[in-house]
Amino acid sequence: MNVLLLPHSLPVQLTMISKWQSLIVKLICCYHPTPSYTSHTLSHTKATSSHTHATAPHTPSSSSRTLTSSHSAFRSPIQSFNRSMTKLSRISSLWHYHSFHTHTASFADPTPFPTQPIPSYTSTTPLPASYTTVASVYVHWPYCRQRCSYCNFVKFVPHPGARWTLPHDVLEDAIVHEVKHSLQHSHITQVSSVFFGGGTPSLARPKMVEKVLRVLQSKGHLLEGAEVTLEVNPTSLETQTLREFKEAGINRVSIGVQSFDAAALKLLNRDHSVKEAKNCLQAAQSLFPGRISMDLMFGLPHHNTERWEREVQEAVALCCDHLSLYQLTVEKGTALYRQVMAGEVRLPEQDQMADLYAVAVQALKEVGLYRYEVSNFACSQSTESIHNKGYWQGQQYIGVGPGAHSRVVPQVWKSAEKSTKQRNAGLDGSIAKGISENDEIRSNTPSLHSSTNESAVNKSNDDMTCLAHVPGTEHRLEDSPCTSTMAHQVIREARVNAADPASWLQETLKKGNGIRKTEHQTRVVVASEYLASGLRTRKGVTAERWDVFLPYLSLGEVFVGELGWLEDAGLVHLSPERLRATEEGLALLDAILPHLYNILHDHLR
């Protein structure tokens, strides 16, 4: 079930963030050169999933614009915005972003990332335990029954004999093993939420959910009452398995209705009918009362404000707990893209899109659903998505499965030189048996390690001497030569799994996880991601969370007296507790963010 640009799960899939966010973070890195290993960050956009969130690999630049390091270029979005502020982007806040961008990548770039061994240095991670010990888990199921016309994420339609088609037992056991391995090699002791996304995870066996939760519970990681969400495609077949999924441990469902118009469903190549969607919602109400979310798309060819308002009202009548709204976007390589380019399909203009979004926001407000994030609406705090809020608040998350993304503070990084035997120690027998029985997977999967990669990592280790923690000493903030140096201290890893199920399985066999790419994130990069995602929410960017990432440079020090016309125009509000966008500002975030990043950049010069 994919809404917009990514599989409903940055996590994600963010994930994971918008095109503008990815661009701006990279621009900041251009202004503040850091060692080669942090020269850019993973895109949270439609990168291919090798991190699905979008899905043969989430490539860092598959959907990014060309970057330049000139200062004038960095300011140009603001200059353009000042020239035509009203018309520039009434709907820019939608960013064509789904919370699960953070989890997986798109299929835009089918080339897998080269494997990079884990560095052999010891990282200095002066982060509080309240941050390093808590995370969410995203599980990516890579298969769909068919591909939607707008979807460019890494998904696979299983076929007998196809190398990407893995037996259920093999895939499930490999996912479980990756969960174990990821937790063992982290500081995480508490899992606040679990999200099963894809792909179409409701096509998986409920047994998969049971296996994953059993592992988390056996290790004492899963918090009591933790939110456990399943993405559901509302076909009759999948509706029949909802009770089994509940018995396996699911306590919340996200249903990908997308539209209540039969013609729209046909255009989108969805495999359910309007009647099936309504029946699924009804069944879910009895099994998961107060724990249902519905995905709905706007910007379809037939949409005008009157028709769209009626559709929103119909949706609320069927599900009044939680609603996620996503703008239909056209991605290269999709069937919808070809139809639009051929003139067969015409979508609303941007001003019309803005009107549709505004109509929905008002209609939902009138029935008691408030906007707690740009695309998400809830009837009460208890129905807000805990999992999604973790992404927006910059929390750690572990992504497992083909194409999944992660943001994790690793344990002390050990030597990358480990024997295959050591890597495979503890592998479940069913995984080894499954891979050995599939000669095609072995023969067709290229070696993922190379001397080139080894030397590159060794080089980056040498470059990182200034950031490495010397065993037996304590790192003190006051010993740092300057704020800028501290800003480029590595504190977290951004990881991307191999997208192809066969390649991911081979990786898991070799080293316990399916990671194809690892990028080391500095304090300023992590804070920048948080600035972009936090501003999407009603809560905003809190001073408390900001201090976790930049403890020596408070939110107030950066922005007090610097917001100028943004405050004068009523677009943002800064208090001692937080920086947040106003209702008006939420509609202009893409234009506001470059200015905020520019302010942060000036403080780090």
For the structure shown, list the relevant keywords:
605 residues; alpha/beta; TIM Barrel; three-stranded antiparallel β-sheet; 19 strands; 39% helix; 16% strand; globular; disordered N terminus
Folded structure, characterized:
- It is a single chain.
- The radius of gyration is 23 Å and the shape is globular.
- Helix 1 (19-31) runs parallel beside helix 26, helix 2 (71-83) runs antiparallel to helix 26 (589-603) and helix 5 runs parallel beside helix 6.
- The chain has one domain (1-605): Alpha-Beta Barrel (TIM Barrel), CATH 3.20.20.70.
- The longest helix has 17 residues, at 168-184.
- The two termini are 44 Å apart.
- It is of the alpha/beta class and 605 residues long.
- The strands form five sheets. A nine-stranded mixed sheet has the order 11-12-10-9-8-7-6-5-13, with helices on both faces. It has a three-stranded antiparallel sheet with strand order 14-15-16.
Residue share in helices? 25-40%
CATH topology: TIM Barrel
Largest sheet: 9 strands, mixed
* Average residue pLDDT: 75
Number of domains: 1
Unreliable runs: 1-102, 105-124, 413-426, 430-481
Task: Compute the number of strand runs.
Answer: 19
Cα gyration radius (Å): 23 Å
Strand order of the largest sheet: 11-12-10-9-8-7-6-5-13
Note the beta-strand portion: 15-25%
Number of DSSP helices?
26
> What is the general shape?
globular
Structural class: alpha/beta
Please identify the oligomeric state. Answer: single chain
GO cellular component, one term: mitochondrion
Protein name: Radical S-adenosyl methionine domain-containing protein 1, mitochondrial
GO molecular function, one term: 4 iron, 4 sulfur cluster binding
Domain Radical SAM core: 129-371
